[in-house]
């Protein structure tokens, strides 16, 4: 890839990710975030909330598992134990257009609304058939929904669900216009190191197969941030996929964003001769060649090079062979 094309691809990916985080021009009415027990989606949710606050949007937080009101949230709604109809009515009352007497006034006076749902697992487990109704009732041109689904939490479906019906996660992934899958940066680095050494990739969380307590993320000298795999579905049906690193800021400022390929831990290393080793940086051998090695290879004179040039002469190449004393001369083979 040429440098200009690579720079254009990097800029385009970052701008698209920024557009989704800022919910600019209704880029994604329904954003689905998939997280795990090892890496939660809280840093990414907080970034959505902070950017929505800067854009002067009304922030609604629908809580199924969160006990305290998060920072920069305007309205905190406790959803556990409530019916879907009552929940839709309360959310719609807060996101209704204000001071709207004509369609023109609706477009100018309505305030943008960001609805954040901290967990879709309770709805998917108890009433999976109401998910399309829930989304369709609260999403409008002035409201965007960001919802979290815990990927590795066991989902027990009710007995009334037909076995031929699609799984709730399949249904959510189909309806979402943007899907973010978050994972630990530390785990991504360890997985990459194992791949570079042709070792078995490590497992974490439930995949470790340990009995007893679940061993979560270990603290210590680990890279801060999380890996975000973005999948943006355009209206044409084409999907745009990219991997980013989101590093939350402790001082209250905006989080730093970068492509996974631009991060120092994933950038290809360079050897002492100035050549890039690429993905073989930690290997015991190198399949690439440096500039000095290329020059030395071009200066090597191949065996019988002079004989080949003298005899070549457009004859298609010949083999020169000097018989020794131990060789048995055969006239028939010589004629062939």
TrEMBL record:
<feature type="compositionally biased region" description="Acidic residues">
    <location>
        <begin position="325"/>
        <end position="336"/>
    </location>
</feature>
<dbReference type="GO" id="GO:0005829">
    <property type="term" value="C:cytosol"/>
</dbReference>
<dbReference type="Pfam" id="PF10483">
    <property type="entry name" value="Elong_Iki1"/>
</dbReference>
<keyword id="KW-0539">Nucleus</keyword>
<comment type="similarity">
    <text>Belongs to the ELP5 family.</text>
</comment>
<dbReference type="GO" id="GO:0002098">
    <property type="term" value="P:tRNA wobble uridine modification"/>
</dbReference>
<dbReference type="GO" id="GO:0033588">
    <property type="term" value="C:elongator holoenzyme complex"/>
</dbReference>
<protein>
    <recommendedName>
        <fullName>Elongator complex protein 5</fullName>
    </recommendedName>
</protein>
<keyword id="KW-0963">Cytoplasm</keyword>
<dbReference type="GO" id="GO:0000049">
    <property type="term" value="F:tRNA binding"/>
</dbReference>
<keyword id="KW-0819">tRNA processing</keyword>
<dbReference type="InterPro" id="IPR027417">
    <property type="entry name" value="P-loop_NTPase"/>
</dbReference>
<feature type="region of interest" description="Disordered">
    <location>
        <begin position="315"/>
        <end position="336"/>
    </location>
</feature>
<dbReference type="InterPro" id="IPR019519">
    <property type="entry name" value="Elp5"/>
</dbReference>
<comment type="pathway">
    <text>tRNA modification; 5-methoxycarbonylmethyl-2-thiouridine-tRNA biosynthesis.</text>
</comment>
<dbReference type="GO" id="GO:0005634">
    <property type="term" value="C:nucleus"/>
</dbReference>
């Amino acid at each position: 890839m040429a440098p200009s094309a690579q720079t254009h691809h990097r800029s385009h990916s970052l701008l698209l990710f920024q557009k989704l985080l800022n919910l600019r021009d209704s880029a994604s009415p329904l954003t689905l975030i998939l997280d795990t027990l090892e890496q939660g989606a809280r840093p990414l949710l907080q970034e959505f909330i902070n950017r929505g606050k800067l854009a002067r949007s009304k922030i609604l937080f629908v809580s199924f598992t969160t006990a305290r009101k998060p920072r920069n949230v305007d309205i905190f709604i406790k959803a556990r134990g409530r019916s879907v109809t009552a929940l839709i009515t309360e959310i719609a009352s807060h996101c209704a257009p204000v001071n709207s007497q004509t369609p023109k006034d609706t477009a100018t006076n309505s305030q943008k609304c960001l609805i954040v749902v901290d967990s879709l697992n309770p709805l998917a487990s108890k009433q999976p058939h109401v998910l399309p109704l829930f989304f369709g009732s609260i999403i409008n041109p002035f409201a965007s929904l960001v919802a979290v689904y815990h990927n590795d939490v066991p989902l027990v479906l009710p007995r009334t669900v037909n076995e031929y019906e699609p799984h709730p996660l399949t249904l959510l992934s189909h309806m979402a216009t943007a899907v973010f899958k978050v994972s630990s940066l530390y785990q991504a680095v360890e997985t990459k190191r194992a791949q570079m050494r042709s070792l078995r990739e490590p497992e974490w969380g439930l995949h470790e197969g340990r009995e007893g307590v679940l061993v979560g993320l270990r603290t210590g000298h680990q890279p801060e941030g999380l890996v975000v795999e973005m999948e943006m579905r355009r209206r044409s049906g084409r999907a745009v996929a990219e991997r980013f690193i989101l590093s939350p800021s402790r001082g209250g400022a905006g989080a730093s964003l970068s492509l996974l390929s631009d991060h120092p831990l994933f950038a290809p290393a360079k050897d002492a001769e100035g050549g890039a080793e690429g993905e073989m940086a930690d290997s015991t051998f190198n399949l690439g060649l440096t500039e000095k090695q290329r020059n030395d290879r071009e200066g090597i004179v191949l065996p019988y090079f002079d004989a080949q040039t003298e005899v070549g002469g457009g004859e298609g190449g010949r083999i020169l062979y000097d018989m020794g004393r131990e060789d048995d001369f055969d006239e028939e083979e010589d004629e062939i």
